[in-house]
Write a sequence for this structure.
């Protein structure tokens, strides 16, 4: 429930090439205005599950994009019944979107999107209804060749691929030319896992192993472990345990119950298990 | 479209006995928190039509009321297809509301609610899809008898009803006892008409004649009269013309297009035709 000025779930994941929207609770389009997020840049929307706090803002966003004369395709990845809901709401308003809304029904774990730079997978989490996590993984970035240097050291073009991959070059005199001399580094490939509403669920550990940033829900503190379990939610301690077992680099916890006004205890509890933990706070950007 | 910190439409009408919600755009439940409106007090919701800016916030409000353990009946008056939308959204979330949601489909003009104190009528307005206006009319309040005085002047109980209605009493000596001496005044009965999205439409004039407060949409300024007409919306001048022809006491204009950041010109334009006009501004209360 929205409370203490906290809105329902929505996240923007910004990569070099994409602006992904992950979940879209009520009010998301207004919050985007507030935080100056250009919604026209969003081409891919991912909805984890069909509880209202994760999707009630979607239909408003979709129709506003239409009123904004969007013409670019919009890809929507979501549990299948969402399509019927959207179609029905468009039908009763006698409205046609001026762009193509391409619906991708989430059905099996695996890759749901890939291009030259990134792959996106969905995986099952453990909630009261069908619910999906999403794993965004940039492809390994190749090192960049320095044109002047490859000429200077007479590297044949047939060796360029090896250079991209970081290998050293051995010249005609058997001298080793270090790769660092011939190429420059690029931003390392990053990964982000979004574990939407879920009870403590160890099967996800394998999927999210070693990611740079893990978002894991943490609806309750651990003294309410039983309540969390009965509602298929997690405690801060459980989220941190998953982070630790998966060896991720950093943990972000969120989806705090409206019964908590202050959130300090969430951070304290999680940090005892997994130190590099941050609270997912509204309107905040986290650099991966 | 939400813009310039203006949210989609929702109004609370507060009477002595009721808190009515009229339309419920996205974000209404959050705005209610902001303006400290106790949503548990709402027992009747009226939805004018099924364009998203008038109802996308309803499902979130309904489910939040459920999470708040509401048990009182909630009456919803709306175009019929809304029922299917709500049912579908509850079904996919595998949720049951802990209270009864009583759906009243708007089908013909006339009284849709009445109790001892108030009647509520719906009437057709002229929009691109089925759309309803609502007229809230308090029943004439009866004057209150002063017990000491009716004893003193020996008024028989059979005359009490006439006293309630304001009639003078003639005693055994043919002396006229003024009603004001025997009774006290109560708040006069008030009326409020809500004319949701509509083009200029004279047939509503008869329905709303003489109301204390008329809310009439005014999406555009009059230099865009043709645009307004083609979209079944009104200009400020047209809203004021309706107010004038209906002889209402006061006019409130709202539903301003997102293309306008400042609203001063709306007031100026309307006041030229109908002076007692106010802008419907977010978070503002208007005393009827």
């Amino acid at each position: 429930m929205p409370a203490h000025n906290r809105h329902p779930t929505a996240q923007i994941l910004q990569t070099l090439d994409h602006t992904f929207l992950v979940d879209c609770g009520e009010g998301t389009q207004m919050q985007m205005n507030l935080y100056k997020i250009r919604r026209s840049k969003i081409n891919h929307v991912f909805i984890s599950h069909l509880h209202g706090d994760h999707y009630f803002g979607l239909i408003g966003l979709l129709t506003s994009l239409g009123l904004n004369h969007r013409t670019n395709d919009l890809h929507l990845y979501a549990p299948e019944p969402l399509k019927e809901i959207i179609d029905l709401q468009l039908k009763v308003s006698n409205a046609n979107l001026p762009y193509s809304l391409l619906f991708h029904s989430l059905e099996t774990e695996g890759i749901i999107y890939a291009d030259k730079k990134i792959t996106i997978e969905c995986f099952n989490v453990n909630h009261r209804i069908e619910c999906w996590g999403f794993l965004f993984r940039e492809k390994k970035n190749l090192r960049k060749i320095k044109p002047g240097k490859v000429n200077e050291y007479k590297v044949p073009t047939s060796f360029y691929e090896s250079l991209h991959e970081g290998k050293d070059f051995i010249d005609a005199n058997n001298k080793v030319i270090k790769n660092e001399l011939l190429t420059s580094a690029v931003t390392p490939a990053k990964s982000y896992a979004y574990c939407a509403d879920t009870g403590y669920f160890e099967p996800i550990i394998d999927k999210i192993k070693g990611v740079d940033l893990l978002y894991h829900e943490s609806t309750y503190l651990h003294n309410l472990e039983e309540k969390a379990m009965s509602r298929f939610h997690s405690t801060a301690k459980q989220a941190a345990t998953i982070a630790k077992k998966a060896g991720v680099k950093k943990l972000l916890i969120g989806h705090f119950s409206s019964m908590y006004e202050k959130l300090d205890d969430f951070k304290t509890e999680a940090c005892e298990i997994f130190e590099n933990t941050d609270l997912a706070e509204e309107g905040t950007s986290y650099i991966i």
Q: What stands out?
A: Chain B is about 25% helix and 25% strand. Residues 81-92 of chain B form the longest helix (12 residues). The radius of gyration of chain B is 22 Å. Residues 145 and 183 of chain B are 4 Å apart (CA to CA).
